[in-house]
Amino acid sequence: MGRLPVPSALFAALLVADKIAAGGIRLATRATLALVVGFAATWLALGLPYHPITSQRTVVLSLPFLFVYGIGLSVLSWRLARRVKSQNRQLQRLSRMDPLVELANRGFLIQRAQQVLQTGQHHGGDACLLMLDVDDFKRINDSHGHRAGDEVLRRIAVVLRQLAQPGDMPARLGGDEFAVLLRQRIPAEAMDVAEQIRHYLQEPGAPETAHIQFSVSIGIAAAAGTGSAEDWLAKADKALYHAKRHGKNTASYAD
User: Cβ neighbours of residue 133 under 8 Å, at least 6 residues apart?
Assistant: First the structure.
């Protein structure tokens, strides 16, 4: 091009923009240095040609590169942005979920429970928290193996999802402990849900757990006017402990 000003500036700008989009300022700096060295060596090899006036032919031949490359780079950047946004949503979902049973984890449950408490304090409304765990879970692992224990946990998760209504949130707290946040439910309705859970788990389930006899104990706590989500969970845990002490495979309500 004989160091024509317009085409040279166009090519240099688009090449630098390409490197910034691909690897940021660091890559662009290294690539620009390589570009300058390559240009200098080639220009010297060609005898230092210089044409200060850009012909109409050169301008016309530069237009396809300007439009095609510029639009192509924009489309690529848009696709990358969409992919990053999708991956961020996936990472956010994974940070809130328990990978074994695909329920909300403890942190997400507490966050949602705190929101329910704050909403109830300002606008009223009933809510209950169920906390449950598997009776003698260690015996299941010792007798049938940890893989069978995992299948029991997955079976519980399936039942909790089936019985959950819109607005409810089943979650795994850790180990063999689960919880269910029930929106717009009075304690009597929460007790009905607890009994349904126990009843469903007594029925034959998936083939992986059909040969395993197990039960759950459940504690129920209504949302208080004051206190935190941790206090609410501790209240449900106290009710669960009461159910354990009274024979297991039962549900207990915390007064």
Answer: 175, 176, 177, 178, 216, 217, 240
